[in-house]
């Protein structure tokens, strides 16, 4: 198991190095000059040149890449071209909103999907199965931003149970902050819950048809006992994969929901940085998201071994 962990850690490190190189090069070939954009159309050329020198944009490409990577290793993401503050401060402020929102949405998605998928698999071809699959098909088809606006109309404008947008900050208290994140989390969670429920149902149905399930039933276990003790654990492998992918998607892909609810999260930060040509912010946020995706993938792979002992023996 130790050798496997070392191999996975090496793979993670190499993937992160390759991703940092690709991200840096892609940002470099983007047309336009950040210094000219910051100074404006009628800026003095000498002032633009001075600003490029100050920002280090005239340094050789390899030197800029190595300087950027060295800063990342020390926790220094550079200074924002637009806001003139450390990028790490901008990211820490936005992560404090985006990460709890992601975890909240993922928890809701899992709590909805697991019972729905298990019910649909246990009652295959019944009215319950058809109802669950119809609801999940609807959840997949409806865009989350449209559903978010419906939530605002019903629960914020008509019922006035929640605010229509904004974030009071964690200093206002835990429950006011969670309440402000509830509608965005629901809007993000329901489409993901629909996907996860369908995967859970499909994986469980495949597992219920295996020989070891028939053996468990022959030993006297009821269908429900065999499902809980044997089928559920063996069906978790594809489900864990989807959960890992959903975490990455929710963390990086909540830009539309954040704009609908006026949440100052990572998604809005990237959007604003792109419109303002603040490439250092874009680079830093993207590499942070890539790092999060790689780490989550690594943790999901470890969860495979915990869920299926056969994988541990195979790796050993």
Automatic annotation (TrEMBL):
CDD domains given in the database record: TM_PBP2 (cd06261)
Keywords, in A-Z order: Cell membrane, Membrane, Transmembrane, Transmembrane helix, Transport
Molecular-function annotations in GO: dipeptide transmembrane transporter activity
Keyword Transit peptide: no
Subcellular location: Cell membrane
Main location: membrane
Parts of the chain that traverse the membrane: 12-30, 101-122, 134-157, 177-197, 235-257, 285-307
Boundaries of every ABC transmembrane type-1 domain copy: 95-300
Protein name per its UniProtKB record: ABC-type dipeptide/oligopeptide/nickel transport system, permease component
Source organism per UniProt: Hoeflea phototrophica (strain DSM 17068 / NCIMB 14078 / DFL-43)
Taxonomic path: Bacteria, Pseudomonadati, Pseudomonadota, Alphaproteobacteria, Hyphomicrobiales
């Amino acid at each position: 198991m130790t050798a496997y962990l070392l191999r996975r850690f090496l793979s993670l490190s190499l993937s992160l190095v390759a991703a940092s190189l690709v991200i840096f090069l892609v940002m470099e070939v983007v047309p336009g000059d950040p210094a000219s954009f910051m100074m404006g159309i009628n800026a003095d050329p000498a002032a633009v040149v001075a600003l490029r020198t100050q920002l280090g944009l005239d340094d050789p490409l390899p030197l800029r890449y190595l300087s950027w990577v060295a800063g990342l290793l020390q926790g220094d993401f550079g200074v924002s071209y637009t806001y003139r503050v450390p990028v790490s401060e901008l990211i820490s402020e936005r992560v404090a909103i985006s990460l709890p929102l992601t975890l909240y949405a993922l928890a809701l998605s899992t709590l909805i999907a697991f019972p729905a998928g298990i019910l649909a698999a246990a009652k295959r071809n019944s009215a319950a199965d058809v109802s669950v699959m119809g609801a999940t098909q609807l959840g997949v088809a409806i865009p989350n931003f449209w559903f978010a606006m419906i939530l605002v109309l019903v629960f914020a404008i008509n019922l006035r149970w929640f605010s229509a947008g904004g974030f009071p900050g964690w200093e206002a208290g835990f429950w006011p902050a969670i309440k402000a994140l509830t509608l965005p989390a629901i809007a993000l969670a329901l489409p993901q819950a629909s996907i996860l429920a369908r995967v859970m149902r499909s994986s469980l149905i495949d597992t219920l048809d295996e020989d070891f399930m028939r053996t468990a039933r022959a030993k006297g276990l009821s269908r429900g006992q065999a499902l809980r003790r044997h089928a559920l654990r063996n069906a978790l492998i594809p489900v864990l994969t989807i959960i890992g992918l959903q975490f990455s998607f929710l963390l990086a892909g909540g830009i539309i929901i954040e704009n609908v609810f006026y949440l100052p999260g990572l998604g809005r930060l990237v959007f604003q940085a792109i419109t303002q040509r603040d490439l250092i912010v874009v680079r830093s946020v993207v590499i942070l998201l890539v790092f999060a995706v790689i780490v989550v993938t690594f943790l999901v792979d470890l969860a495979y071994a915990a869920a299926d002992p056969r994988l541990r023996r195979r790796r050993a």
